[in-house]
Known about the structure:
By secondary structure, the protein is of the alpha/beta class. The chain has helices at 30-38, 50-60, 64-68, 115-118, 131-144, 170-178, 195-199, 215-221, 228-240, 258-272, 292-299, 322-339, 352-359, 367-373; strands at 3-4, 12-13, 19-23, 44-47, 71-75, 82-84, 98-100, 103-104, 109-110, 126-128, 150-153, 183-189, 206-211, 222-223, 244-252, 281-285, 287-288, 310-312, 318-320, 345-347. Helices cover 35% and strands 20% of the residues. The chain has an 8-stranded mixed sheet. It has a 5-stranded mixed sheet with strand order 4-3-5-10-8, with helices on one face. Helix 10 (258-272) packs parallel to helix 12. The radius of gyration is 20 Å and the shape is globular. It starts with a strand and ends with a helix.
Amino acid sequence: MPINTKGSRHPILKYKPDTLFLEEGIEEYSLTQEILSRLPDVPRQGFQDISTITEQIISSQYDVFGAGKNSLALSRFKGSFLKKCPGISPGMVCCNYYIVSLSKNCIYDCSYCFLQDFLDNNPIQVAYVNIEDLLSELEEVFTQYPDRNFRVGTGELTDSLAIDNIVPYTNHLIPFFNQQSNAVLELKTKSDQISNLLNHSDPTNIIVSWSLNPQTISELEEKGTPSLTQRLEAARACLDKGYRIGFHFDPIILIPGWEAAYKQLVDILCDTLPIDKVEWVSLGSFRYRPNLKSKIINRHPNTHLFNSEHFPGKDGKFRYFRPLRNQAYKTIRGYLTSRSKELSIYLCMETNEIWEDVTGKTPRSDKKLDQFFDL
Ligand code: SF4
């Protein structure tokens, strides 16, 4: 995977797969042709069953998950695309979010990424090309429930925009969501690949959101991602184009000096963008399932993620000790509210108790947040 480090302390990834794997029969899809035209010189190999390629990678590589990022498999998704967000797990407050998984794995390599465990036996990067099937499924569901408001994201098992220049999902999704009366699309990213968004004339029903961390933490834990400045420049361009934008401070990582680092992050954000025009900022602390820890340590031996202790919660995930989480949320929320009283701030995958400790209320008792959860 070629990495361009010239002129930047932060290695920026210009992604081009080593091999394109093509499932038998997918040439008929228009998206396949769009992708092939963007990668004319990448070697191609056909397959009938993706497990044969996966087995090949697993048997020949030490870093199987990392190796999976180097190839791109184009395939047809055969199940139902639309799913409720897994935030609806025991003891956690759910924010009424739906996900569609159009692709799997990601060109970036964040140390904390849960995909390292989730895609352990299935590491190859896949893009599903039968987008027409997705759009008809969404149309049917949105029409069937006209009184329900759908907030749909594509960034659950990948970054929503990182390879949008190669696999231009947004060219299909944005015009579709522009026409919906009860649905919005959220594109969640760390990327600056926004050219398709800027070339589209209608921003209706589209929210673009960036995951942010202080630059020092990003350099330690988010390999290959665009810098904070590049993400904010992309956000600014989308805002100027009329898109609604939001930010996720997630995962918040508590290294020594985190208070000053997150204060600086808030200052840079608010000095770069008109914060009153930002839809929301979400806060979520570093969390992980037990199986992930050894994978992180193996793949990212210099990580700072485990410099503090973590404890299991009701959903089985490990998090910072509750008083420390409370302190971090209150501190960072304080930085944000000192710059804007109107900004909507919510907590991601947290308990009602933490919500009450941090904000003094539960999400459903707050009119503004209640609207957000029913968006
Ligand atoms: S950007 Fe998201 S999906 Fe990609 S490696 Fe980082 S955490 Fe994982």
